[in-house]
Amino acid sequence: MNKNKITQEVEAIFKKVFEDDKLEINMTMTANDVDNWDSLSHMLLIVEVENTFNIKFKLRDLNKMKNVGDMIDLLVLKTE
Question: Band of the pLDDT at 23, cuts 50, 70, 90?
Fold first, then answer.
């Protein structure tokens, strides 16, 4: 799956999890940039991403993700 398609899918997941149709993601976005991004919504986000892309993140994968760009780059690798 290419990076643009993955980015579109991830943005749709963010809109769903945060219940905000106007939310636009960018590669440097972090939890500090999104209202209501707390530990619970973070777990919902991870589960939704795993289910959508039919993957499982390892703990070290989660620890490496510092922003949305890191998540997308990891998804590109995991879906090749």
Answer: very high
